[in-house]
Write a structure and sequence with these properties.
The chain is about 0% helix and about 70% strand. The protein has no helices and six strands. Strands 3-2-5-6 form a four-stranded antiparallel sheet, with no helix packed on it. Strands 1-4 form a two-stranded antiparallel sheet.
Length: about 80
């Protein structure tokens, strides 16, 4: 598994973490509502939305924070190696 950590500087109505293959296919999504400012963690068991283990390789993940119609998006790259 791996842990995604993030820190919000203000409350968010919704926060989503989306994981994509290098080809852009969505493989997993986490959604949290009414997230308070501060430090948070999301644990990913390295399984896709069908509960199958993902292959070694490069993946992209995107944090999307929404608050009162405002949206902040950050995208990052990661590698899965076992």
């Amino acid at each position: 598994s791996t842990i995604f950590t993030y820190h919000l500087t203000r409350d968010a109505d919704e926060l989503s973490l989306k994981l994509f293959t290098s080809g852009g296919k969505l493989i997993k999504e986490f959604i949290e509502s009414n997230v308070n400012e501060g430090y948070h963690e999301i644990v990913w068991d390295l399984k896709d939305k069908k509960n199958n283990p993902v292959a070694n390789g490069v993946y992209f993940y995107r944090f999307i924070a929404r608050r009162r119609g405002e949206e902040i998006i950050r995208t990052f790259k990661m590698a899965v190696l076992r």
